[in-house]
Amino acid sequence: MGKNIISVVAKSGTGKTTLLEKLISELKRRSYRVGVLKHDAHRFEIDHEGKDSWRLTQAGADTMVISSKSKLAVVKRNKQPDEPSIDLLVEKYFDDVDILLTEGFKKNSFPKIEVHRKERSNTLLCRGEVDDETLIAIASDEKLIADVPVFDINDYIGICDLIEKRFLS
């Protein structure tokens, strides 16, 4: 599983989620099992106030699972001072996928695709002050000259072709 992890990175508001939606749909169309791990630098709530699951975690449940015929959700308190490592999360939750796409995690050592919009930034995260050798491609709304393939920001088919060739063949 280790080599089949790709991080989609960008500055906030650039279009990571939009690109990921298209990549997931296309990879599913090609019959791959796809996992997604989203990094949230803020405190997020998956439970909503007043719902039974929220009430149960508020009451002190350390682990709360919601189960149905079609979905399973786990809410688990993180008792460690830091967030869990990506390696631990991959090992624990993603053994059943062909490829794992992460949103964020820009400081990890996995291959990265950077999303770039000229209106959002004049510089790239992975090519600028720091030259991140894990960058494998750029999805951009402007023509760029780079040492990795540069795709139009809407060319999810081309990006999927690259992912399939490099990681799933």
Structure description:
This protein has 169 residues and is an alpha/beta fold. The protein starts with a strand and ends with a helix. It has helices spanning 16-29, 52-58, 86-93, 156-168; strands at 5-9, 34-38, 63-67, 72-76, 99-103, 112-116, 135-140, 150-152. The mean pLDDT is 89. The protein has a single domain, classed as Rossmann fold.
Helix content: 10-25%
The separation of the N and C termini measures 13 Å
Morphology:
globular
Number of helices: 4
Q: Output the CATH homologous superfamily.
A: P-loop containing nucleotide triphosphate hydrolases
Q: Given this structure, which CATH class is correct? A: Alpha Beta
Count of the separate structural domains: 1
Mean pLDDT: 89
Order of helices and strands: EHEHEEHEEEEH
Helix vs. strand class: alpha/beta
Order of neighbouring strands in the sheet with most strands: 2-5-1-6-7-8
CATH topology: Rossmann fold
By CATH, the architecture is named: 3-Layer(aba) Sandwich
Unreliable stretches covering 5 or more consecutive residues: none
List keywords for this structure.
globular; Rossmann fold; 169 residues; alpha/beta
Topology (SSEs and partners):
Elements: E1 5-9, H1 16-29, E2 34-38, H2 52-58, E3 63-67, E4 72-76, H3 86-93, E5 99-103, E6 112-116, E7 135-140, E8 150-152, H4 156-168
Parallel strand pairs: 1-5, 1-6, 2-5, 6-7, 7-8
Antiparallel strand pairs: 3-4
Please provide a brief summary of the model.
By secondary structure, this protein is of the alpha/beta class.
